[in-house]
Amino acid sequence: MASNQYRMAGGRRGGYFSMSYGFLVALLFACQPAQPPGPPRPRDQASTDSLPEARYQVAQPMLAQQDEQGNTLWKLQAKSLQGQSGGKQAEGTLIEVEGWLYRNGKPILKFTAGYARAHSERRELEAWGNVRAVSSISQARLQAERILWKAREDRLIATGGVIIQWGTLILRDERLTLDTALQRAIGGD
After folding, report:
1. What share of the chain in percent tops pLDDT 90?
2. Bridge-partner residues for 95, per DSSP?
């Protein structure tokens, strides 16, 4: 079949000539000076300046955050996540939440709540709607309408009908500040 191709190109000599000519042309193009790079592609301004207006819902999300050393700070599981984006912000609220707060990469507080949201830059987590929590360290139990956990300070601020139970000791208040493991109440807030 190769001989048929050569004949069609003008015989054996014509075939070699065509191949040599093709090789020479390819070599010349390869030896051309490099073209200066073209202007950079313009960025998609919409993606860097603002987020599109959107509402979304995610079923059964699981979210977590780690610190700089890779230690888990918190984990959240929920029935759903409802969120919206627009401008330079995106935000969402978890619904029917089960969560874990960590200290030094170890889970120390398990909680449930109607709703939750995390602020990753501030390392804060907020939960509300019949919050119930149990410490894996002290076995203390907490009930409150709302909690705000500040990971950097190892503080949990509970508000709204707060009940903390350490064994047989029960403390009730409208606002309590506790360490994350619910081992001690902290004054001054």
Report:
1. 60
2. 80, 115
Cα of first residue to Cα of last residue in the chain, in angstroms, is 92
Closest CA to 122 of 159, 155, 163: 155
Which residues are registered as beta bridge partners of 63?
A: 76
- pTM for this model (two decimals): 0.70
Measuring CA to CA, which residue among 101, 106, 134 is closest to residue 116? 101
Distance of CA 11 to CAs 1, 3, 19, 25, 54, Å? Answer: 13, 8, 12, 21, 68
DSSP summary character for residue 154: T
The whole domain housing 16 covers 1-32
pLDDT digits 0-9 by tens, 151-177: 999 999 999 999 999 999 999 999 999
Q: Are residues 1 and 79 in the same domain?
A: no
